[in-house]
Write a structure and sequence with these properties.
The chain has a single domain, classed as Alkaline Phosphatase, subunit A (3-Layer(aba) Sandwich). 27% of the residues lie in helices and 16% in strands. The chain contains 7 helices and 13 strands. An 8-stranded mixed sheet has the order 7-4-8-1-9-11-2-12. The chain starts with a helix and ends in a 22-residue tail after the last helix.
Length: 296
Amino acid sequence: MPGSSVYRRSRAVVASALAFTAAAVGLWTGLGGSSPAHAATGVPAPDHVVVVMFENHAYSQVIGASAAPYLNSLATGGAKLTQSYGITHPSQPNYFALFSGSTQGITSDSCYTAGFSSAANLASEVIAAGGSWASYNETLPSQGSTTCSSGTYARKHNPWFGFSNVPVSTARTFAQFPTDYTTLPDVSFVVPNLCSDMHDCSVATGDTWLKTNLSAYATWAKTHNSLLVVTFDEDNLLSGNRIPTVLYGQPVTPGSTSSTTYNHYNLLRTLEDTQGLTTHAGNAASAADISGVWTS
């Protein structure tokens, strides 16, 4: 959407100014009354954010592991969160949690009814604010397909299809991920298939996929005010749901580490606040932003 990044940044400036003014008189209750505790002043306003979700591995299986040299290079050149956690088990509820601030009553990996919820979520909020959103889904049969599974594609990793307020056309195939990164939406999610996401295949396979498919964007993000987020849905059931989360790009302080405890709701809150949004979905409304790793 032309001009959406400029529009987003102007919203962020207005939100920050209002937050400061209200705090000065002790009256800050959150724009729209939905998020009283945390203003958007502590996070950057990147032009593009790309979030990549991997599967079912604990922090120690990836960070520092020889099987994941590329992901570890992102952690070294960007920031790693050493106390990042999934919300629950199994996989699917975690995707809904990160996308909408709630598991939306999902408790299994079973195929849900498309468009069953009209709850606020990251995509609906970004679109309502005049920004742009898309997901890029490896092995999705076609743009907007709501099929439950197809080969190595699984809809359980695509929560956006659960929401009637997110156009199905915004779910694109990974083949549609642009090579001209200036044409990326303001916010996008990349979902590898069941092999590439380390669910059915090895950590090394997923790491190689990440390098092959997103290293060019990561390099570009370093000099174009953009952000790459790499995280996991859940751990392997053996590490208290502690997962790897790595942030990389120009807004990130290279080599930084945060040992603050965060979960998917904190990441959602941070993504919302990078867009200057004045409302927050579900549990993101009471979650703190990720801090201590930004360049400003």
